[in-house]
Structure formats: C-alpha cells, structure tokens
Fold:
Amino acid sequence: MLLDSPQSSSWAFLLRTVCLCVVLVISGPAGGASPSEVIVIAEEYAFNAPDRIAGWWETIRLKNQGHEIHHAQFLKLSHGKSVKDFDEALAADSTQLPPWVMRYGGVNSVMPGAEATVIIDLDPGDYVLICGIPNARGRPHAANGMTRALNVTERDATGTVPSATLALTMKEFGYSLDQPLAVGNQMILVRNDGKEAHEVLLLALEPGASVLDYLEFYRPGIPRNPAGRTIGGVTGLTPGRQAFLPLNVEPGRFGILCFLADPLRRRPHFMDGMWMDLDVPPAKPPVMP
Structure:
C-alpha cells in the first residue's frame, strides 16, 4: 500500500500469498520517550503539521481525521533538492520514489478516526512528509498533493534516546525479535539491517481471520475490510536507520509485514516471506507466597 509498491492492477495476484493473524492495541510512548511530541493531522489529501521541528528523537503522533487510511512517511531530501523537485519527480513517475530521498520512518497506516505513535531520529535538513497509500483509483495520495515541506533544525541537546524493552530487526526478507513480545507497555526498537528499505505494518484481524483474508478483501481507498484493520507501525526506513514503536500489548495474536517492493523486481517484500506471526499469551498471575 506504499508509494513504490505495484499499482492496483497487480494486487489481485500479489495479495493472495501471505497468512498471519494479529490482535493489537497501540498507545502512547512506553518506557523512555523523547521530550517533545509532534502532532500530524491527516485528511484528504493534506497534512496539518509544523513547518519546523528540532532534530534528535521526536515522538510523532499521527491523527487521521480523513475518510481514508493514511500514513506519514518522513523523507529527507538530498542537498539542493526541494519539495517542488519531489512533486515534479512524482508527477513523472508515481510508482517509485526518486533516488535522492532517504526514508526516515514515520507512522504507518492509521484507520479513519484513529491515531498511532512512533519515535524517530531526525537529522537536520530539509524533508518532505508524504502519504504514499493509494486511493480508490490506485493513485498514491502524495500524487494528489498529500506532501508537506518540513525543516529539521539542529539537534536538541536535551533530547534522550528511548529505552527499548525488545528489538525487532528487519532485513531481506524477514523479521527477528531478540525476545518474545509480552503483555503490557512495550518500547520496540525497530532496526533496518538490510540492504533495502523496509517497514513494519501492523494489522488487527477479526477472530479466525488471517492476513491472507485481509489481502483477499483489500481494495485501494476502501478502509473497511471484513477481515480486519490497519493499526499503525513504522513506515519505511532506509538501511541502517532505526525507530522506536511504543505499544500497549494485550493478549492475542500479532503479525507484521512489509509492503515495500524490491526496486528492481517490483515485487512486494511480503511475497518473499517478510512477515511474522506472533502469539502473546495472557500474563501469568503472580505466585502467592
């Protein structure tokens, strides 16, 4: 569902090859958190967000006030490039990002009326904030004007690095956790150790449903899906970058997947196995003395 994924005409074949189940609740930051919070409001087809923020670790809270699913992808522009250059490149080819941008993460797909949070490390420089999710015609929201210029100033000397409770590593083509996901407030360090950009997309599915069911019913621009819903995650990270995902985890089945496509084959990463099932049992009651 991202900008450089295949167009909607290809989904019917591509979206029948994965199966996983999830139940998840997303809350505000858990564990350590950055000292400031940036509110980004999404609607069709625009962002309401600050023009300038301080560098270092920033908590990004995306509130979706639109009628479609939206996400927020932070893209750092190469020196000398502008949002105008980005918009022109997108107008020329809306199926992929220009090679002179770097993915710095952001909040992944959020349902209408919902919100989610991530914590990302922003270097000083010029950025463009985009939504690459397609509308009902398969056209990325960014190609319909859902882009916004953003300047990141010098690093805030008072900022602190969040404290992780577990780490999630991404690479070609899979995920790995350094310890099991457990009930309660968690701060997940998401790290891209691969050679391509990767993301973490979270789904909450109906009882008995799977991601295969979700993808079977998926239609661009239509938030309702009888199999489940998107509930956030981390948008694309350039290789070597990392982000923090704060979660309030409840017992149930969890899952993650990557929709980003291989830049040469144009094949979504989940088709090469980049997905994971996670089952979280209820917390054990304390042992009485």
Q: What stands out?
A: The chain has one domain: 8-280. Confidence is low (pLDDT under 50) at residues 6-35. Residues 83-92 form the longest helix (10 residues).
